[in-house]
Amino acid sequence: MKRTTIEIDEDLLARAKRALGLGTTRATVEEALRRAADQGDAEFAELRERQLRLLQHFDAGIDAQVLASEDMWR
């Protein structure tokens, strides 16, 4: 855990508390961060899957494993 001090728009925080059904600022911020991180992870996974499906349509002469690996960017 890290303790930090930030300025938060009070109206936005109140809206988030209502939307998430949470009563404390800490719980609301943590849940909002968790949801944002989960959404980002899901979007990245979906993009990766779409890219891999696209690579499968290329000729057999292209090594999709290399293209999908970190070696591609070296």
Fold and architecture overview:
The chain is mainly alpha-helical and 74 residues long. Helix content is 65%, strand content 0%. The chain has three helices and no strands. α1 crosses α2 (25-56). The longest helix is centred in the middle third of the chain and has 32 residues, at 25-56. The chain is elongated. The two termini are 35 Å apart. The model has no long low-confidence stretch (mean pLDDT 89).
Task: Please give the largest β-sheet.
Answer: none
> Radius of gyration over alpha carbons?
20 Å
| Secondary-structure element string | HHH
Proportion of helical residues: 55-70%
**Oligomer type:** single chain
User: From the helix content, strand content and strand pairing, which structural class follows?
Assistant: mainly alpha
Low-confidence stretches: none
Q: What general outline do the C-alpha atoms trace?
A: elongated
Strand content: under 5%
Number of H/I helices: 3
Give the mean pLDDT.
89
In angstroms, what separates the terminal alpha carbons?
35 Å
Number of E strands: 0
